[in-house]
């Protein structure tokens, strides 16, 4: 038989030894931190699998960067000979509109 009463000496509120309510609050804070860490880990894993998770420009500056990136791809396709100059100009105008 264990000493310390029914709870085995761990206090009635489930908190770290005989700390009582302070121990219970500390326990709650630790669990909330643990769950937040697990949630952050899940979000991080999903973003690693799916890229950054954005399917549209979040801000106007992101839209500008997206357009610049698309223009860089067009330049690369032109340099590789995948498209001709007329197609390049047409697609570039389409991106800017």
Give helix % range: 55-70%
Taken in chain order, the helices and strands follow as HHH
Radius of gyration: 29 Å
Counting structural domains, the number is: 2
Main sheet record: none
Total strands: 0
Structure overview:
The chain has 97 residues and is mainly α. The protein folds into two domains: 1-53; 57-97. The chain has three helices and no strands. The chain has helices at 21-50, 60-80, 85-96. Helix 2 runs antiparallel to helix 3. The longest helix is centred in the middle third of the chain and has 30 residues, at 21-50. It starts with 20 loop residues before the first helix and ends with a helix.
Could you give the topology of this structure?
Elements: H1 21-50, H2 60-80, H3 85-96
Helix pairs in contact: 2-3
Keywords:
97 residues, mainly alpha, 2 domains, 3 helices, 65% helix, 0% strand, rod-shaped
Brief summary:
With 97 residues, the protein is mainly α.
